[in-house]
Amino acid sequence: MKLLVFGGRGCLGTELAHAAAERGHHLEAPGRATVDVTDRAASAAAIRDLCPDAVINATAVVGINPCEEDPAGCLELHVSATLGLADTCRALGIPLVQTSTHAVFDGFKPTPYVESDPAGCGHVYGVSKLAGEQLALHRCPGAYVVRFPTMYGRRMNEAPGFVDKMLARLEAGQPCRVPADKLDSPTWALDAARALLDLLENREPGGIYHLANSGMTSYHAFIERLRALIGSTAPLAPAREAEFPGLAPVKPLRNALASERRPPLRSWEEALADYVATVLRPAGGSGDKG
User: Fold this and answer.
1) Is the pTM of the predicted complex or chain greater than 0.85?
2) Which H or E element spans position 86?
3) Does residue 154 contact residue 288 with C-beta atoms inside 8 Å?
4) Which of 18, 95, 163, 169 would be a feasible disulfide site paired with 174, CB 3.0-4.6 Å?
5) Mean pLDDT, range 113-127, rounded to an integer
6) Listed residue (9, 58, 27, 22) closest to 191, CA to CA
């Protein structure tokens, strides 16, 4: 397959490049300096020029706080740009993959959210991503909306995620305090990328899919497992999410994902151990964080 990825320098985009290379697919990932997706003419020209088998929109404002600070910019990227991509893909008959997030849910469900659960959230980030989902599905029949939980993995950009920040502190021996009441299904982005490629290769029906490593755990338990795997002795203490104030009026506490539409991915424990063994601590190597 020939794939065009917007937002290809982030965690998912980077691991998509690895997954595509594994399977012999050709992947193009122009940076924002080359193609700004908020410029509809530019993104449409890029799609027409490459004529890919699928377009993957992995662009996003990273984090809830930046979206609360600049809702207009958030809406421009998550909604307006998505609308432009959906219309272009529909006109050219090209499948669109719109990436989304567990943050579209309110965080009250005690078990993992599945695709049929009603979405609803109380912050700009989640509302804008949900709007992007609906536009993609409405304007581009057959589009895929793929929702992800908190992810980790290699990345080509300089925007570290939660796990990257915690890993840096653990490796430096610095004390860490991590919420024990915030539950998720942390996922190696390479596993999510492979599952996304499965959808395209198998020509699965369009619609919403949840792609996440199996299981639910707290952020504290996850970092505790990471600390053990890398052999860190950094102090690690449990905390409450409320101790880390943010700009959003509501901070969801339970945002794990599971799928009712496809077979489950491997467990988060197995994925994390594999990531540490093959990326962070490969045998005979110094580690490759991408």
Assistant:
1) yes
2) helix 81-92
3) yes
4) 169
5) 95
6) 22
Domain ranges across the chain: 2-161+186-216+257-273
Question: Residue 67 region, left (φ>0) first, then alpha (ψ -120 to 50), else beta?
Answer: alpha
In whole angstroms, what is the distance from residue 5 CA to residue 75 CA?
Answer: 20
> How much is the pLDDT for 159?
86
Which class would CATH give 2-161+186-216+257-273?
alpha beta
Give, in order, the Cα–Cα distances in Å from 112 to each of 105, 115, 217, 263: 11, 10, 10, 15
Q: CA Rg, the chain, in Å?
A: 18
CA distance 132 to 138: 10
Distance CA 144, CA 127 (A): 18
Within a 10 A sphere around the Cβ of 93, how many other Cβ atoms?
Answer: 8
Helix (H) or strand (E) holding 76: none
pLDDT one-digit tens code per residue, 133-189: 999 999 999 999 999 999 999 999 988 999 999 999 999 999 999 999 999 999 999
